[in-house]
Design a protein that fits this description.
By secondary structure, the protein is of the alpha/beta class. Helix content is 45%, strand content 27%. α2 links the parallel β2 and β3. The radius of gyration is 13 Å and the shape is globular.
Length: 106
């Protein structure tokens, strides 16, 4: 069992495709992962359905004492998350190394 799992998210996180993200997070949680880092550097688009998946995952993981952390946000995706006021609620780092250091320190 790994305490922290990194999931590489690619392409679009939109309605119809958001189930892929949900399934990947679910598998990580079922394997015992407490903390999940979503590497978003290859995400080209996110819509309200994808944002809903992030919120649901964040809430579920937090309830269990873990952390959902986003890394590698493009300016475009960061802007969408800023507008929806999710940045600050869901942690975000420039890269996985910074996020992992945060987990080790806190």
């Amino acid at each position: 069992m790994k305490e922290t799992v990194v999931i590489d998210v690619t392409g679009r996180v939109t309605i119809g495709l958001d189930a892929q993200l949900r399934d990947a997070i679910g598998e990580a949680r079922e394997s015992g992962a407490r903390n999940i880092l979503l590497n978003m550097n290859r995400v080209s688009k996110i819509d309200s359905s994808g944002i809903g998946e992030l919120v649901a995952a964040h809430n579920a993981i937090r309830t269990e004492g873990g952390r959902l952390i986003l890394v590698g946000l493009s300016d475009k995706i960061a802007a969408v998350l800023q507008i929806t006021q999710l940045l600050g609620v869901i942690e975000a780092f420039d890269d996985a190394d910074s996020a992992l250091a945060s987990l080790e320190g806190g």
